[in-house]
Amino acid sequence: MNEIKKFPYTDILGWSISRYDRFSNCKRQYFYDYYAKYDKENPLEKIVFLKSLTSKALEIGNIVHDVIRDMLQRFQKSSKPINKDKFFKYAFNMTQEYCGTKTFFEHYYNGDLIPVQEIYLKVKNILENFLNSSRFSWIEKNAVPKSSEWVIEPAGFGETRINNYKAFCKVDFLFPIGDKIYIIDWKTGKCDDVKHSKQLTGYSLWANYHFEKKAADIVPMIVYLYPEYKEKNVKINDISVSEFANTVELETKDMYEYLIDIEKNIPKDKKEFPVACNTFFCKYCNYKEICRASKF
């Protein structure tokens, strides 16, 4: 396969699904996430700390992703079957490390103790779902022989260009089999058909841009690992690609409206970024300590 293209650094903002989701849900939270250095009321160090808060659900996903990533990288060095005892010991050690070195939202705001064993048992359950799946066996049989061509969580943020707009679509796992390129994204949370279909289309465009593959030769899939193993595929064609590209352009222009300088990515004043009307977002927002508009 071709090498991943590199881009010179520019200040201009780049579209991503997660960025536009944040923008859509709460403009103030979006400001803190992406423009903290422009806040005139709170120290940058405080905002950066609050942004770094994790949660039990988020950390379960992080651990699962990182264990699978490391397992796939191990397959690139050796095609021997996985030793499950060592595999789950590795997962337990990672759980202990992540839980012991990060500050959790639940602890910071509520004083809750972080149940390491409970988190690990869910991680173990999720990983067992994957190892026991027919897809895992299929990867061992069909994909491992060409593991040197795998792309596993590539460095950077998955930068690409869509309709000449900067965009980020970072894949979890991409690999060739025959004339096809397969893309897998691991999920440990709930199914979201609209968001995840959009995500898969973005991955397809990323692969199309970097590896010059036709849409018909790209097979993207979401793999749901909990509560049971399940897959979601999206058929990519010229129409869906065109619609997605238009969506990226429109959503990028939406975010541009909150800037005073598009090329330098300089935002308007914080007061121009309103707080979400839905207080559900306030309740679980990392920044509720410093957000005066928050009701929690």
Overall spatial form: globular
The count of DSSP E runs of length 2 or more, i.e. the number of strands, is 9
Distance between the termini: 51 Å
Supply Rg.
20 Å
What share of residues are in beta strands?
5-15%
Q: Give the SSE order as H and E letters.
A: HHHHHHHHEEEEEHEEHEEH
Sequence of strands across the biggest β-sheet:
1-4-5-6-7
**Major sheet details:** 5 strands, mixed
Q: Count up the helices.
A: 11
In short:
With 296 residues, the chain is of the alpha+beta class.
Overview of the structural elements:
With 296 residues, this protein is an alpha+beta fold. Helix content is 47%, strand content 13%. A hairpin with a 4-residue loop joins strand 8 and strand 9. Helix 1 (17-25) packs across helix 2, helix 4 crosses helix 5 and helix 4 (56-75) packs across helix 7. The protein is globular and about 55 Å long.
Write the layout of secondary structure elements.
Layout (H helix, E strand, L loop, with lengths): L16 H9 L1 H8 L9 H9 L3 H20 L8 H18 L3 H6 L5 H16 L2 H10 L7 E2 L6 E4 L2 E4 L4 E5 L2 E8 L5 H19 L6 E7 L5 E4 L4 H19 L2 E3 L4 E2 L11 H5 L13
Parallel strand pairs: 5-6
Antiparallel strand pairs: 1-4, 2-3, 4-5, 6-7, 8-9
Helix pairs in contact: 1-2, 4-5, 4-7, 5-7
